[in-house]
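TL;DR need structure tokens for one chain.
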Amino acid sequence: MKQISTLLTKMKDQVMDEAYPGAMQHIDVAWARDPFHVLISTVLSQRTRDQSTYKASKSLFARFNSPAAISSVDMEELTKILSPVGFPRAKAKAIKEISRRLHEDFDDQVPSDMEVLLTFPMIGRKTANCVLSYGFDIPAICVDTHVHRISNRIGLVMTKSPDGTELALKEIAPKEIWRDINAVMVRFGQQICLPIRPRCEICSVNAECDFFLALPADDVRKKQWSG
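>> reply
TL;DR here they are.
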């Protein structure tokens, strides 16, 4: 069986020291660890680049910084503020409803219960896990497209959906590294294990990767790796 802790350490050593200006979790801002801000910025991040998410989040929180405040914002104004992200109107509608429920039903506090979080609009397991992990320091595995892709490419899991990947990874990963899986694999997936034409020839875990080992011998990535 592949040792996920060892593989994750190799990925981390390769990418985590490099400059990476877009990563939300590495931006030094006051709201980076607050559960409400983590929740809202993670909703905004769906199908959106990190830098656009950061820009919209920063603008939103500078003007409306609580569930009560956001729930009362005019839809047109909120949509305009969120214009840097994908699907701004749909996200504005969801964020207003999330904020309204937090204000009216939860005394402006984000619940730390997965099942409750899943009842909010635009909050699936990935977003809920990000809130638990980054907002509450509760061990959780946030599985986005990068984590899902890399875990299956390497051969750590054989799953068809991010939710399936989350559950499978929980079976093989020590709880103390659950948070690291997202932080490391997101960067690894954006720098090395790209969706198309992954940079296998420089990958620090290629010798243990099912995808790389299955490449034909004349594939340029294998030739470059072997010298």
